[in-house]
Amino acid sequence: MQKIMDSSNYMERETGIAQLKEKAKRWDLIIIGGGATGLGTAVDAAARGYATLLLEQGDFAQGTSSRSTKLIHGGVRYLQQGNLSLIVEALKERGRLLRNAPHLVFNLPFVVPNYDWWEGPFYGIGLKIYDMLAGKEGFGGSEILSRKETLKHIPTVETLGLKCGVIYHDGQFDDARLAINLAQTAWEQGAVVVNYMRVEALLKKDDFIEGVIACDVETGTEYPLKAKAVINATGPFCDGIRRMDDPASRAMIQPSQGVHIVLDKSFLPGDSAIMVPHTDDGRVLFAVPWHDRVIVGTTDTPLEKVSLEPIPLSEEIDFLISHSSRYLAKDPGKEDIRSMFAGIRPLVGQQGLSDTAALSRDHVLSISRSGLITTTGGKWTTYRKMAEETVDQAAVIGQLDPKPCTTQDLKIHGYHEDPASFGNLAIYGSDALRVRDCINQDNALREKIDPDLDVFAGEVFWAVKNEMVRTVEDFLSRRRRVLIRDAAAGIRMAPRVAEILSKALGRDDSWRLEQVKRFTNLARGYLP
Questions:
Q1: CATH assignment of 419-524, among 1.10.10.10, 3.40.50.10070, 3.40.50.1000, 1.10.8.870
Q2: pTM of the model
Q3: Quick one: which H or E segment has residue 289?
Q4: What are phi and psi of 514, to 5 degrees?
Q5: Is 49 helix (H, G, I), strand (E, B) or coil?
Q6: What is d(CA 133, CA 379) in angstroms, rounded to the nearest whole number?
Q7: Between 3.30.9.10, 1.10.340.30, 3.40.50.720, 3.90.1310.10, what CATH number should domain 101-172+254-345 receive?
């Protein structure tokens, strides 16, 4: 164990905390929020050479950024809206992600099953336009499939009335794992990233923001932190930070909830996904193979308020079950749901933009009178471009020496051209061999935590030292995705994970028991 657990190169929370204690230190940029946008911004800023600090109130990607449909895509639905420039930008970023993180981003074929005579030609033409917009960044050409070819790709699709299908290609990824790798990339580029560090207030001098007051959630210790510019990248929670700046700020976010259900692989046993272009509420519906499961989503339900742990509504679950039953030969029921999860989309209402809007497309970049930079909206696929534009603006606000963005071709931590060669450790990419070494150092570490899943005890130790894991939920939800794949298995695994964590973090029995209780209560909410 000692060989793996000793290295100054690892992303360690204690090392980050030590830098917060340097009272005279003034950062170039402080980023609030450890989701896709915040982490991408930290990577960009650090890669340019700016002194960068990122603070996250919970765990990295704990909110929206770990609750996506797991797709890196241009946005087929934008074809209907005629928003071609947005599609082109997303497709370009999709290609960059495949090149920079091939251990987490993959080419995935999607099939649109057609049940009316006009659907094949109609969707076929639309997807040819999608191919054309992708250009050299394309993942593969679309084509119309015969009924027989359609069944070959998606053998469990509903056959009654099936005429043909249209196949096209898009990207799939593991959202939370990419977030962790972005945190590690930012760290390697010189940034400091700290989870469980909540921003309590903004510091001002002459009505201009000059830093934040942050509180360590674990200890209650407060840190006044100075910066030349502060970036609010808190997604659906960004209005809370904006009101710290100006209590009279009107709401920018109009939140919407998207729910997914997770089924056993038997419901869609092939390697292709199903895309339904138009559901009863006008959204696109996906059934996507992912980590030996099938993710079905998503819904679109307006919310009045946001929370760290949004709860799927019964009507949303019913909607997904009824719609997936129309396209799957085997009709799923609530008893078939292995897990269900909800994410909040930070949709931007234009009427809330009372301050200067430097950017207004799929995402919005806003600067308040006191200099608070808020970046929100967008999606995982375009996180890098959002980060580039945010850092460009922050450099102006903070009067930093202008430096060009370098992330277009920056390899993300874990980059490996053949991750499949690592088997069940493929998600670690180039770290897989070191993870394997950690697992193999002790018989106890070689044990599977649960017989139904390939998750080993040694991975928990690895995650503590290298991936800033602090809780059972961190590991089972976002490092190894057990909570989303199989919530019941997560409940079974929680006691063993808590036992290992308590040793690695130096916690007592009361902490261990409380962790099991908390995770169990959380996981029950992922079951119908």
A1: 1.10.8.870
A2: 0.95
A3: strand 285-290
A4: -65, -35
A5: coil
A6: 19
A7: 3.30.9.10
Q: 160 Cβ partners below 8 Å, 6+ apart?
A: none
Average pLDDT of adjacent 10-residue blocks, the chain of 528 residues: 43 94 92 98 98 98 96 85 85 97 97 92 92 91 96 95 96 97 98 98 97 98 97 96 95 92 96 89 88 94 91 95 94 97 87 40 86 94 97 98 97 96 96 96 93 95 96 98 98 98 96 98 97
329 CB burial (10 A radius; 0-12, 13-18, 19+): middle
* CA distance readout (Å), 164 to 119, 148, 149, 309, 379: 9, 8, 8, 41, 31
Domain boundaries, the chain: 2-64+177-252+349-397, 101-172+254-345, 419-524
Closest CA to 184 of 46, 73, 282: 46
Report which residue type is found at 285: L
The per-residue pLDDT for 4 is 35
Nearest to 97 by CA among 60, 43, 48, 54: 43
Q: Residue 370 and residue 96: Cα distance in Å, rounded? A: 35
Q: Which residue intervals of 428-486 are DSSP H helices?
A: 432-439, 457-466, 472-473, 482-485
Cα–Cα distance for residue pair 200/198, rounded to 1 Å: 6
DSSP annotation of 251 reads P
304 Cβ contact partners less than 8 Å away, ≥ 6 residues apart = none
Q: Which residues of 251-283 are buried (b: 16+ CB within 10 A; e: fewer)?
A: ebbbbbbbbbbbbbeebbebebbbbbbebeeeb
Residue 276 confidence (pLDDT): 92
The reported pLDDT for the residue numbered 279 is 80
Q: Are β-strands 373-377 and 363-367 bridged in parallel, bridged antiparallel, or unpaired?
A: antiparallel
What DSSP string describes 257-277?
EEEEEEEEGGGS-SS-EEEES
